C-alpha cells in the first residue's frame, strides 16, 4: 500500500507544479502588459501635448488662452504653498538635530549648515515638494478629469471638434511643471531657514552658519535641483491626466476613486525612480557637481 501511494505522489505533484508555474507566468505577463500599456499611453499623451503646445505657440488661432493656465497654476501650486512650507520647515529643523551630535564628536558641528544646504537644493527640496504635490494636485487632477469622463464632458468636447488634450491636458501639464519649479525654490529657502533656526538652538554662530551655507550653495547644485523639479512636475501632470482620462464612462465613482489612488501611487514611484536615475547620471558623469 505504501509503495503504490509513493508511486502516485509524483503524478499528483506534477499538476500542482504546472498550475503554480501557470499562475506565476500569467501574473508576470499580465503585469508586464499593463506596464507596457501604461508607458505607451503616457508617451502618446506626452507627444500629443507637445504637438498641441507647439500648435498653440506658432498658430495664434489655436491658442487656448492664458486663463486656464493661470487658474491651474493657482489651483495646483499657490494653494500648496502652506503645506510645502510646513513640511520643509520641519525637515530643515529635524535634519541638523539628527546630524549635529555625530558631527560634533569630530569637532565638525558647524558642518550641519553645509549638509543641510546641499540636501535642500539638490535632493530634499524638489523630492519632498514633488511627493506633496502628487497628493495635493495629482489626485485632484485625476479626480476632476475622471469625473468629466463619467459625465461625458470629454465626448462633448470631441463632438464640438475641440481637442481635449489642448484644452484640458496642456494647461495642467504646464501648471504642474512650472509650479513645481517655483515651489522648489520656496522649499529650498524654507528648509535652509529651518536649519538656521536649529543651528541657533544648538548654539552655532549665526555668521558662521550663514557663510557656510553660502559656500555650500552653488549654481550647479541649484540648477540640478530645478531640473529635477521640472521633470517631477511633468511626471505628476502626465500620470494624473492619463489616469483621469483612462476612466471609462461606465466606471462611475469607483473608477474615479481608483484613478485617484493609482495617480498618487504611480507618481510617487515615478518620482523616486527619476530621483535615483538623476543621481546616478549626475554623479557618474560629474554633471552639476
Helices, strands, pairings?
Elements: H1 2-58, H2 67-76, H3 81-105, H4 112-150, H5 153-159, H6 164-201, H7 206-216, H8 219-245, H9 252-284
Quickly list its features.
85% helix; globular; mainly alpha
Explain this structure to me?
This protein has helices at 2-58, 67-76, 81-105, 112-150, 153-159, 164-201, 206-216, 219-245, 252-284. It is mostly helical and 289 residues long. It has two domains: 1-63; 65-284, no CATH class. Helix 2 (67-76) runs parallel beside helix 6 (164-201). The longest helix has 57 residues, at 2-58. The N and C termini lie far apart (75 Å).
Distance between the termini: 75 Å
Biggest beta sheet attributes:
none
Helical amount: over 70%
Rg computed from alpha carbons, rounded to a whole number of angstroms: 25 Å
Determine the mean pLDDT: 84
Give a short synopsis of this structure.
By secondary structure, this protein is mostly helical.
